[in-house]
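Long-time lurker, first post. I've been practising inverse folding by hand and with some scripts of my own, and I keep getting stuck on stretches where the structure tokens seem ambiguous. Below is the full token string for one chain I'm working on. Before anyone asks, I'm not after the true native sequence, just a reasonable design that respects the backbone. If someone could post their per-position residues I'd love to compare against what I wrote down in my notebook.
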């Protein structure tokens, strides 16, 4: 099975930046794309951003538009999440996942998930 490993999480002050990485154990060219989700304390997992491979189209939740950027390093089979102007409400466990089918915005549309990395933003 495909293994996904996230890294780059940590504790930052509001207004700061972090860059998360997600490394796959094998190339994902046979899939349609990948995405990032997050789960704040006591809440359900929610969509953050996704990218389709065919057209390199990106999608963002309204709450992160203009602040977060998803990108992909094809040679290294790695996707990134650059997070700028972080806010306390961004605090959550962040997960990367491989898209399977359905809506890019839905948790149920992804079949492979990383273990998650904690991002905590202090005020």
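-- Answer (accepted) --
I ran through it position by position. Result:
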């Amino acid at each position: 099975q495909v293994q996904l490993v996230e890294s780059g999480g940590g504790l930052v002050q509001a207004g700061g930046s972090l860059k998360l990485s997600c490394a796959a154990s094998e190339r994902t060219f046979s899939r349609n794309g990948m995405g990032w989700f997050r789960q704040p304390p006591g809440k359900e997992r929610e969509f953050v951003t996704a990218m389709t491979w065919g057209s390199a189209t990106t999608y963002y939740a309204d709450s992160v538009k203009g602040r977060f950027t998803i990108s992909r390093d094809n040679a290294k089979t790695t996707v990134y999440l650059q997070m700028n102007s972080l806010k306390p409400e961004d605090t959550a466990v962040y997960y990367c996942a491989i898209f399977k089918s359905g809506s890019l915005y839905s948790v149920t549309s992804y079949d492979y998930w990383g273990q998650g990395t904690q991002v905590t933003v202090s005020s």
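A couple of notes from the structure itself: The two ends are 40 Å apart (CA to CA). The mean pLDDT is 94. Happy to go over any region you disagree with.
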